[in-house]
């Protein structure tokens, strides 16, 4: 609540001062906070306003951040198809700009969106679900490695958790569908190791 109030006050200030760069940044941050609070429609409107401002300003990196925020909002509201589309757009933009932090953020969002979508699409075959989960794991694996290279430990923890969850879901799918080729022993090991590493890396992050 305090963060939302602070961001709301800052939005009013930057709007009055017409400092659009700071206004867009604050709108984007407020959008994420409102989504975490469960106010999805409000969050989406704020994120779209930030995106519109950033497009007019011509900051491609910031446009990517706004697209990624919209993807995260869609994930919170279980709209996984548009979440995947937004995350892919952000990832494509960040790759073109060689913006490593943005790549990590977009890969993490894409991994989560694909993983959750694989479980929500009940009409998909087990083979298709497995394919999606492997894609989610691949995104999380890349995010983990890159986050480690640029010392983004919080994002590395997120990627490790996503990888652990994707391999866990693959294990459950494999147990329910013995004809799938994945080795359940390997999946169990990889999931456990990833989640244990997430705990270890998290313990090295300084606390406020």
Can you put this structure into words, describing what you see?
The chain is mostly helical. Helix 7 (126-149) runs antiparallel to helix 8. It has 9 helices and no strands. The protein starts with a helix and ends in a 6-residue tail after the last helix.
Spell out the blueprint of helices and strands.
Elements lengths: L1 H16 L2 H18 L2 H18 L2 H17 L3 H18 L2 H21 L5 H24 L3 H24 L7 H19 L6
Helix pairs in contact: 1-2, 2-3, 2-4, 3-4, 4-5, 4-6, 5-6, 6-7, 6-8, 7-8, 8-9
In a nutshell, what does this entry contain?
The protein is mainly alpha-helical and 208 residues long.
Number of distinct helices: 9
How many DSSP E strands? 0
Overall average pLDDT: 95
- Tell me the Rg in angstroms: 18 Å
The dominant shape is elongated
Please state the structural category: mainly alpha
Biggest β-sheet strands, sense, barrel: none
The unreliable regions are none
Strand content: under 5%
Order of helices and strands: HHHHHHHHH
Distance between the termini: 18 Å
Helix content: over 70%
